[in-house]
Amino acid sequence: MTRRLTPGVNAGSMADIAFLLLIFFLVSTTIETDVGIMRKLPPIINDPSDITIKKKNIFKVEINQTNELLVDGTIMKIKDLKKATMSFLDNGGGVGDLTCAYCKGDHNVTSSDNPDKAVISLVNSRETNYATYIAVQNELISAYTELRNRESKKLYGISYIEMKKHLKSANYKENKDALKEQIKKVQSMYPEKISEAEPIMKY
């Protein structure tokens, strides 16, 4: 009796199909990336006890455990934070060497002397909602950006945001070194000083 052999299965084409499917999923799958807040860490201070800040130069922003926003001890809505922050930064209440020539605020002597001295103290509870924390950060950064836009347009006829876009663009044909200096100039007029540690105050 003749023995019948079982025909074999050619697995070569299956391997090709599996490989093509793998490539398809690698190409079509999007990987989510975490988006954080851009922050430049402050320089290391050997003896922080030597640094004290006048109380009037500190804008205290607190977020409590129930996600309520308190600004200098008063409850405030997040939508009003930007305007209050701008008023503080642009106050220009200093005299003599502390005078701010470009500030357009109320020049209240009980508020910040000038933008270089103004510090925003951000304090939040461990129970603070992350979305609330981000919303508060956005309003604070937006206040700095709007003031920088104003001065940039006055000095160079272009907004601060547009200058930053030009600096990153590969199609920008002008002198990028000069552009960097202009950006630094505007940043120095309203330096971003947001502290997330309790400051040492003097009265």
Short structural description:
This protein is of the alpha/beta class. The chain has five helices and seven strands.
Describe this structure in words.
With 203 residues, the protein is an alpha/beta fold. The chain has one domain (56-202). Helices cover 37% and strands 11% of the residues. It is built from 5 helices and 7 strands. The chain has helices spanning 12-28, 81-89, 130-156, 160-168, 176-189; strands spanning 53-54, 58-63, 69-71, 74-75, 119-124, 194-195, 201-202. Strands 4-3-2-5-6 form a 5-stranded mixed beta sheet, with helices on one face. Strands 1-7 form a two-stranded parallel sheet. Helix 2 crosses helix 3 and helix 4 (160-168) runs antiparallel to helix 5 (176-189). The longest helix has 27 residues, at 130-156. The radius of gyration is 28 Å and the shape is elongated. It starts with 11 loop residues before the first helix and ends with a strand. The mean pLDDT is 85.
> Widest sheet: strand order?
4-3-2-5-6
Q: Strand-and-helix sequence, N→C?
A: HEEEEHEHHHEE
Report the major sheet: 5 strands, mixed
Structural class: alpha/beta
Q: Tally of extended strands?
A: 7
What is the domain total for the residues? 1
